[in-house]
Task: structure prediction
Amino acid sequence: MKLKPSVMAVALAAGLAMPAQADFLGAKVGMDLFFVATDGSLSSDTQNWNDKSRLSAYAAFEHFIPLVPNLMIRYNQMGTTAAGNELDLSNTDFVFYYQLLDNTGVELDLGMNYRLYSGEARETGDWASTDLDKGVLMGYARSRVNLVGTGLFAFADVSLTNYNRKQISDFQLGMGYSMGLIALDLNLKAGYRQHDFDVRRFNGVNVDVVQDGWFMGAELNF
Result:
């Protein structure tokens, strides 16, 4: 299987997480399994999409340098098919964010997300596919509330934009459990995710779909 550059970028970032501890206050890597269902239209034609479970993988680095944002790189598989049509909305997030709150009870991050879509669209009877390689600037927010003393936490992660015929949002809501291990924490989590993609003339393609479903994942926090 040929790896896309975005996949390799996340893999490289994850590989650097361990040695980065000397220079950064924190680093984390994680992976989610997304049980996705797609509903909506490609070029105004509503489809009966056939979906499979998809993966997301990410790595983040946090530091103490003032005014310099923290960084998270996240790759999201978002492909689906329907009766000869193919729609791949896979993308890579480059999230630059600041920690506004970071204590034992509440965490809050705010920033910007440059999302680079790297998929394609192919319609029935069209042998040539259209690349959906295009970047979108989105607002980003993440919050986490810890039930102190139990290891349980609730979280939300949101990216969204609405400009120039692009209405795109991607959010996660869920619960998790944190376990302290030697030199790191293991976070197990599960919840609901929804990706709304309503665009006009996105590299010449009109798409209006909602991809949503349950997900579960694991994260190592150094």
Notes: The longest helix spans residues 5-15.
